[in-house]
Amino acid sequence: MNAQILSIGTELVLGQSLDTNSPWLSQQLAAIGIDCTRHVTVGDELDDIIAAIRLACDESDLVLITGGLGPTADDLTREALAAAMGVELVFRPECLEQIAAFFRERKREMHERNRVQAMIPDGATPIENTRGTAPGMRAKIGRAEVFVMPGVPAEMKVMFEGDVLPALRSIVDARGGAGGVIVQRTLRTLGMPESELGEKIVDLMARGRNPTVGTAAVDLVISIRINARASTPEEAAAIAERDATEIRKRLGAYVFGEDNDQVETAVARLLIEKKKTVATAESCTGGLVAKRLTDISGSSAYFLRGYVTYSNEAKSELLGVPMAMIDSHGAVSEPVARAMAEGCRRASGTDYALAVTGVAGPTGGTAQKPVGMVFVALAAADRTIVKELRLGESLLRGEIRDRSAKAVINLLRLELLKQNL
Amino acid sequence: MNAQILSIGTELVLGQSLDTNSPWLSQQLAAIGIDCTRHVTVGDELDDIIAAIRLACDESDLVLITGGLGPTADDLTREALAAAMGVELVFRPECLEQIAAFFRERKREMHERNRVQAMIPDGATPIENTRGTAPGMRAKIGRAEVFVMPGVPAEMKVMFEGDVLPALRSIVDARGGAGGVIVQRTLRTLGMPESELGEKIVDLMARGRNPTVGTAAVDLVISIRINARASTPEEAAAIAERDATEIRKRLGAYVFGEDNDQVETAVARLLIEKKKTVATAESCTGGLVAKRLTDISGSSAYFLRGYVTYSNEAKSELLGVPMAMIDSHGAVSEPVARAMAEGCRRASGTDYALAVTGVAGPTGGTAQKPVGMVFVALAAADRTIVKELRLGESLLRGEIRDRSAKAVINLLRLELLKQNL
To answer: Which ipTM value was assigned to this complex?
Structure first.
């Protein structure tokens, strides 16, 4: 069973609002084993909406539509659905009564304009809206089951969960099950380039396998998505688990977590488990490393303090970096990164200290020290590690800072795992 | 001239990632007078991509495609474009050389797998990717001009602005210009509730006006969008300017900037103009205030240092907050916020110091000090201001931290403007 999702709204197609309904609905469908093959967004134009409904109904077993049900003149989904069904709109008194009740309960007067929301295509079934005024609709066009919901996310979600989802379950059951359910797993990796990673799992990414395995890269983190299909959630989870285990075996410590994990989530777990503490000394990241380490609730168990030593005086005064060293090597240098980390650890009395100094740009780069040159350092009781990053002059300031922060936190993760990659 | 935008990626159609490229591209098109009529998202399935390209090219003058250009087996946009054009992929040595140069500059080895990214449909023109490895492509299918760009937003945006946009301007000019342009202005405000703000500009928000005026609230910041339509950019800009001036007059210092300005952008401008310096002392925001103040290139002119005093020892040792004060009032209290700001200013020798202490949650709240209770403070030469925020227990940790950081930076903005709101 496959599905398409249509979202209607000029503000969406002009890019003035982000369509969060379609991704949410896709996830809900996947959870009950229905594949979504396409999202389509069109503006509040009658012909465009009719064409989109017809095309989707030609190609799919299920069509979910959101938006265009409001009371104003630019809300045309009711008319478009009627046209795609080849029927007229008819007045449904029970819908008007629900709309009137909605206003009564809120002690507000119903506007005459809201009457239009009680007009439903002949042969369609209205769906009550408990959170707003626009009723939803259910219809059948050709082989396609069609559900229309309001565009306001809060109204849509309640209607989907309360009415549409149970209806979908019945449809799936009546068809003898959906070809099962899909279970999603996502492994998150840091440090291995996407092409090399792809090479290592190329056989698992082959098309037509179950599970399907795909990769997506965002700001240094490469996510590996595993989608497993089976007739029960348990079976699907077992199939996904098999590939997850194999991928973890092949990629080792490059995998830092799952789903929405950040590298600092993994570090937090390890620090808490090992009862270790950390402090930070930052120049170019300007507090971002500390911010990430404290994004996690309960971070006071391992994060004690951070220094944002943006000026050279601050580096010297707070971390004891000798001014002569800064003068001779420059603030962006291996020795200064090392001295920052060691000075931070000493001043803070923590088990570990992290330090970052670099050229975040876009200005301030030189031939010897170009934008994107960053030194990240980790001081531990027995050793200090300094790593030079060359992040590339084409990156934006925010990207250089973000990647530097991830890289230095990853240093600590690997130290806690006692792994060098 | 009308356009459609296709985005390719199984992670998008399954709802695992949000498509932010299509809305961004729609906005760019609107700015040069090209109407976008449809967004379509399909997964990494060859037949689906081919069908989507063909349909879009049948219906539109312009088709923009993002995604599916990576080096791995599930990246199929190159093949699909070739199939839709009815041609073969051919190897382009100049593309491979650009990809190789990309790796060389970053001192990384190019992987054999990246070679596939130099395969381009016969007759298509490659577009250099200065931010990543996947070249873009330009082609013509029937009457439609087709541009293909990478799915990674940072790569896509640079390619769009550098190559695609100039090409689109030429196409529009060659066709004798578009049917009018839309100029967007966005005023950004902080501190006035949306309902009160809406009341103040209700007449400007009336439907059917040109420009149209709308509001959108995200994390305390309320943006006011002005969309003006006219036959030339100058005319449209003048229409937008009229409303922008009127709104600024009505809202005064609540307006902190335009477009993508953050409150720290406004503060940076004021600090540089007045040649003043600032330091930070943060507890619950964990470095976020320093991070925001240093998001801006050139921030070393005004930002000297920051303290992330997460532990009580750090507050006492680094900022001189008396331990007895922390014991009697608690770390989240008016006197501690005041002492943090004053101690930070003293230790840093800056003109201003900002301090934040609060309960970011989700754990750690009590009846007296619930989650969302935050004290923000500003120390200046002549006075210290402390403000208590009650951000509400329903907010996420990240939201509480984000809003606290914005609020304390806004304190400094108003101090620099000598305004109390």
So the answer is: 0.75
